[in-house]
# Entry
Amino acid sequence: MSEPVTQVAAVEVRGVDKVFETRSGNVQALEPIDLTVAAGEFVSLIGPSGCGKSTLMRLVADLDEPTAGTVEVFGKTSRRARLDQEYGIAFQQAGLLPWRTVAGNVALPLELHGEASAARASRIAELLDMVGLADFADRYPDQLSGGMQQRVAIARALAERPRLLLMDEPFGALDEMTREKMQTELVRISAETGAAVVFVTHSIPEAVFLSDRVVVMSPRPGRIREIVAMRLGAEAERAERTEELREERVFFDMVTAVREALHGGSPIGTGARGVETR
Amino acid sequence: MSAGAVTAATAPGRPKGMGPRTEATLRIVAPVAVGLIVLGIWQFLVSVVGVSDYLLPSPVSIIEELIASWDSIVQATLITGTNALIGLVLGSILGILLAAVAARWRPIDRMSAPVVAMLAVVPIVALAPVLNSMFGADSQFGRQAIATLASFVPVFLNTLRGFRQTVPVHRDLMRAYAASSGQVLRTLTLPTARPFILTGIRIASSLAVISALVAEYFGGPRGGLGSLISTSAASSQYARAWAYVVASIALGLVFYLATLGLERLLQRHTPQARRRP
Amino acid sequence: MRETESARAGRGASAASVSRPGSRYGPGGPTRPARRGGRRLATWLWGLAGIVAIALIWEVYKLLGPADGVVIGDARVLPRTTDLAMPHVWDMIARLGEPVTRSASAQPLWLVIVLAALSTLGIAAVGWLVGLVVGVGLALVMQRWRIAEWGLLPWIVLSQTVPLIAFAPVVKSWGSRVEIGAFEWQDWMSVALIASYLAFFPIAIGALKGLQSPDVIHEELMRSYAAGYWQTLVKLRFPAAVPYLLPALRLGAANAVVGAVVAEVSTGLQGGIGRILIQFAGQASGDPAKAWGPIFGAVVLGLVAAGSVALLGVILGNYRRTEEAS
# Structure
C-alpha cells in the first residue's frame, strides 16, 4: 500500500474476478475487471440482471471477497476501508431497523462508532434537514412512505461524512415520480458533500442523469463492455443539473449512447429493463 | 443479480471455506457425535465418578432392565399408546370439525377462539382427577379425554388458520366461475388448509402421548407407563423406572414419526417451502 | 411441549419461510395493539360468552343425560350425571366461598387455593427463569457457531416430541440425598427443575429463530459499519428477536406451569396446587364440588403466567412493530 500522493482514487479495482461456489457447481460472477473511480466522481454501474454489477459493488464494500485481484478504496484494502468507515452504503430496500425511530436509525452508525451524544444529536438534525425529514425525526419506519424511508437510508449512509457512497439500486423500489425527485436530491447532496459515488442501477435515464461516467456491463460472466463518459457536465457543474436537463437534447443523446452500448453486440432483449428482485 | 441472490442463499452461516458437501456431512455427523458424547459422559459419570443409582442409573443397567421386563413394558406401552391414539383421533376430528364450524360462523369463532387460547396455556392434566370420578375410576376414559383435549387445541388452531389461507385471487376466481359452496370447499378451501391440518395433527401427536402419560400420575387404573414409572421410582427401582421412561420416549417417537410420515405422504406434491407451518 | 411446530421451523434455512409469530393464539392473544380498545372489549365479551356456553352445555347435559352416563360396549363415552360425578356449576362456584374443612378455624376454599397457586407459581417462575437463562444461552451458542446448531438442534427438536416429563417421578429421589457442600437439594428444586426443563425447549428454539431472524440486508449493514459480534448482538439481533422470543416465553411460561403442577403431583410435594388437586379429588365422593376448586386455580395459574409474559410484550411494544403490520 503506497501513501496517497496527491489525489488518490476513491476506488481502484484491478483484475478482480469472483466465483461463487454453489450446490450445483461454480458460478463465474465476474470476469477480471479493472475500474478506477476518481475522488468525487459519480460512476454508475448499469447492465442486465446477472451482470455482476451488484457483486462488484459488494466487493468494493468488502461484503464479499474477490476470488482474485485487488480492490483498493482510497489506497487502502477494501477491508481496511470498511473498518475505517471510508464509505457509506445504501441498498435497494431502505433496510431501516423497524424498532428505531427515524432519528434512531440515522444515529445507528454514529452510536456504533462511539460518537458523543451531543455531537450525535446535532449531526442527526443536520442530516435530516439535508434529506428534508426534519419533522419526522420521531416517526417509526412503518409510518413513512417508501421514498421517505429511502431518504432516511441515504441520511444514514451519509452520517459519518464518507468520501465514498456505495448505492445498490437505492431507488429501484420507488415509483417513477418519487424516483426522479430522489435523483435530483441525490445530485444536490452529492454536490454538497463532494463524495464519490458508485451507483448500481437498471435505469438508463437514471444513470445518465446522475453520472459523470456510466459503466456498461454484460452478463454471464459479468464484464465491463464499455465505459461511457457523460458530457452533461463535470463535477463542478453537478449542482447545475436540474429537472430541465431531463428534457434537453443532450440528455437524450446520452441515453441513446448508453442504450446502444448496452444492446450493442448481443441481443439482450428485455433483460436490461426489468426490475430485479433480490 | 443472480449472483447476488446466490450469495444470500448460501454464504451466511456456513463457515468460510466449507463446501456444500462438507456441510451436508457435518449436518449428520454433528448430532450423532453429540449423542455419543452425551452417552459417553453419562456412562463415565456412573461407572468412574460413581454417581449413585438414584441420581442416574447407567445406560447399560437401563438396557438390562429393559430386556428383563420386556413383556410388562410392552403391555404398559400398549395401554398408554391406545389411550394416546384414541385421544389423538378424537381430538383431531373434533378440532377439524369445530374449526370448520368456526370458519363458517363468525359468532362461533369469536366464542371459541378465546376459550381455545385459554386451553393452550392452562394445564389440561389438572382435569384428570375429576374426569376419573366422572367416568369411573376403573375407566381409561379420563386419560383418553385428557389426550383428546390436548390434541384438540393444536389441530383446531392450525386448521382454523388453514381455512383462512385462501388468497383473494382464488376466491375471486371461484366467484367468477359461479362455483357452489361445496365446490369451493372441495377444490379450494380444503386443499389450501390440508398442510395446516396435517401440521396440527403432527403437533397433537406428541401432546397426546405426553398427556395420556402424565394423566396417569393423577390416579386411576394402574398398568400404563406413567403409573409404572411412579411405582418403580417409589420402590427405589430406578433402573426399571428409567427403562419405562425409555419406552415412553420410544412411544412418543413412534407417534411423531407416524404423523410426520403421514404428512410427507399426503404432501408430496405440494412445494414444502411455500408452506407456513 | 405445546407447540412443537416452532421447533421444526427453527431449522436453519426453513426459518425464512416461517410466518411472523404472534397471531398463534387467536384474537385473545396479547399481540394486538392496544389502540383497538373497543375490539378488545368485544373479544373479551365473546370469550365470556364462550365460557357461559360451555357451562350451559354442562348443565343441559346434566339435566337431560342418563344418570349412569352413556355406555357403548364397555366404554362409558358420556359421563354419569349424578351430583357426585357432575356437580352443578353454581355449586362449584359457591363451594369456593365455603371453608375448606368443617373445622371452625378452617380458611375458605378459595384462599387455600390461591395460596397453593401462589406457591406453585413461585416454583414455576424459578423454573421459567432457569429455562430462560439456559435456553437463551444455548440459542446464543447455536447462533454463533453453525456447527453447534447442527449438533444440538436436532436433539432439542426431537426431545420436544417425546414425553421426557415422564422422568418426573425419578427426580423425586434426588430430594434430600444430594448435598454439595453447604447446598442441600430441596424437594421444591426437583419441581423447579422439571418446570425449567419444560420451559427451556420452546425458549431455546424461539430465541434461536429470533437471533437468526435479522434480514441479510441488516446483517450486511452492520458488517459495513464494521460492527463486532457484541455490537451486532445488542443493536440488531436481540431487538429483532423480540417478536420471536415473546411467544416462546409465553409458551415457556405455560409449560413451566404444567411442569410444576405435574411434578408436584408425581413428587408428592406439599403446599402447591398439584397436591391439593389430588387431595381434594380424593374427597370428591363426599364433597364433589370441592375437587373443582383447584382446577379453577390451575386454569387461573396458567392464565396469570401467560398473561405476565403478555405484559412484557406490551412494554416491549416498539420492538414488535413489524409484527403488527403483517
